[in-house]
Design goal:
heterodimer; A: about 120 residues; mainly beta; four-stranded antiparallel beta sheet; about 45% strand; globular; B: about 110 residues; six-stranded mixed beta sheet; about 0% helix
């Protein structure tokens, strides 16, 4: 596709349920990032992939959060045993290269997760 | 770690007014700096960027200059339009692209 695609756009989960959020990056983009955006706040980094390798997962808030990108394209962010504090918009971004610090990230529209 | 501090909003202006949104950063070294914009109902879009000291980024009438001495990257526009109403985020980037965002500033422009 032309841009970064995320699905679903909205997800409502009962506390304790597991959820899986999908990101389809722009074709050919090497770098993929996940961010969490709480209401009224800026996005916060969760994790980074270079192709299929997860090189930085320092932002994952707990071991209930897990991300993968097995073939270096589509990525899935999984949250186990969801809690109310997990309610946020989850953003995915991709960029063509990791080599330049000023490289542009293209963001998806996000998945809004509401945990009841 | 890196941090970005953005002026608190919201900011409300009349059309054709001058806009400044302040942004300062704290980082090890000199990160690349960005302004992203989020229009209502849309995803984050890059507005402009600067990759080194004294660089000026510009786009759609917006400008920001990377000031190493004051560790700032303030966003300015000489004459805002109603269509500029959006949320603006300042961000700093690491060498591989990880972004640290400010909290965002809501801009509302009235006719």
């Amino acid at each position: 596709g032309a841009g970064v695609s995320q699905s679903p756009r909205y997800k409502v989960a009962k506390r304790g349920q597991d959820v899986a959020l999908r990101c389809d990056p722009i074709s050919g983009h090497v770098s993929l990032f996940w961010y969490q955006q709480a209401l009224g706040q800026g996005p916060e980094f969760l994790t980074y992939f270079q192709n299929e390798a997860q090189l930085d997962k320092s932002g994952l808030p707990s071991d209930r959060f897990f991300a993968e990108r097995p073939e270096g394209s589509v990525s899935t962010l999984k949250i186990q045993r969801t809690q109310q504090e997990d309610s946020a918009v989850y953003l995915c971004a991709s960029s063509f290269s990791f080599r330049e610090g000023g490289n542009i990230q293209y963001f998806g529209a996000g998945t809004r997760l509401s945990v009841l | 770690g890196n941090s970005v501090t953005q002026m608190e909003g919201p900011v409300t202006l009349s059309e054709e007014a001058f806009l400044t949104i302040n942004c300062t950063y704290t980082a090890t070294g000199y990160p690349s700096l960005f302004w992203y914009v989020q229009y209502p109902g849309e995803g984050l879009q890059l507005l402009l960027k600067a990759t080194k000291a004294d660089d000026k980024g510009s786009n759609k009438g917006f400008e920001a200059t990377y000031r190493k001495e004051t560790t700032s990257f303030h966003l300015e526009k000489g004459s805002v339009q109603v269509s500029d109403s959006a949320v603006y985020f300042c961000a700093g980037g690491t060498s591989y692209g990880k972004l640290t965002f400010g909290q965002g500033t809501i801009l509302t422009v009235h006719p």
